[in-house]
Amino acid sequence: MPIERNASLRVHNTFGIDAKADVLARFGSAEELRELLRTDVIAGKPRLVLGGGSNLLFTGDYHGAGLRNEVRGLDVVREDAAHGWLR
């Protein structure tokens, strides 16, 4: 769970704008996110959760913590002919 400072957001938005975030961290689970939120570097800063970036347009640097959601897909818990239960 490395935390980058003054990190480029170019690859995190489809427009390729080279804005920077004060802090950028990645998480792959709810527990990793909870741990990140408790760190001194992120606690108390504005936060922006980043996904695939297709709904973001940066017009300047982001003065806060970018949190890159890398939680992997869906798990099929159960399914039958009419329904699927996902986690």
Write the layout of secondary structure elements.
Elements: E1 3-8, E2 20-27, H1 30-38, E3 47-50, E4 62-69, E5 76-79, E6 84-86
Parallel strand pairs: 2-4, 3-4
Antiparallel strand pairs: 1-2, 5-6
Rg to the nearest angstrom? Answer: 16 Å
Indicate the low-confidence ranges by residue numbers. none
From N to C, what is the helix and strand string? EEHEEEE
Q: How many β-strand stretches?
A: 6
N- to C-terminal distance? 23 Å
Q: Helix coverage percent of residues? A: 10-25%
Judged by helices, strands and strand pairing, the structural class is mainly beta
Strand content: 35-45%
Given the structure, what is the number of helices?
Answer: 1
Global morphology: flat
Essential attributes:
two-stranded antiparallel sheet, 87 residues, mainly beta
What do these coordinates show?
This protein is mainly β and 87 residues long. Helices cover 10% and strands 38% of the residues. A hairpin with a 4-residue loop joins strand 5 (76-79) and strand 6 (84-86). The longest helix is centred in the middle third of the chain and has 9 residues, at 30-38. The mean pLDDT is 90.
